[in-house]
Design brief:
Layout: E1 26-37, H1 40-48, H2 54-67, H3 69-72, E2 81-91, E3 94-105, H4 110-128, E4 136-149
Antiparallel strand pairs: 1-3, 1-4, 2-3
Helix pairs in contact: 2-4
Length: 151
Amino acid sequence: MQGDELSHVDESGAIHMVDVGAKPSARRRARARAFVRMSPGTAERLRALPKGDALAVAQVAGIMAAKRTAELIPLCHPLPLTHVDVGLEVEGDGVAVEASVETTAQTGVEMEALTAATVAALTVYDMAKAIDKKMVLEDVRLLGKTKEVVE
């Protein structure tokens, strides 16, 4: 169910950071996905690389991005992340990226998961752009989120 109002805009239209001070801490998880579509030849070249090369750089970039989300998205709360996992897999005509992020805090980690997936995908794009000018970053989406109240 979605609310009727934008969470970062007050009645007068001014922007603000959401006050989560009164919310209880909860263990929160979010998963996000992105896909970099590319030519079959580019995908094959990435698939043929030794494990740990290009995709490992993108994995680390995604993890670092999750940790810096509050610096990139102005109204995001800085969160103490307890776990970040970014997986990349060459699938068919591209690279699928999936990121999962966890914290115990008063607000969720959707933006951190989306940021991790997107930056990892952008890193793949950056590393392959010299050989494939027609790559497309697509299907960036939240796969799910959970919240478990901590007592």
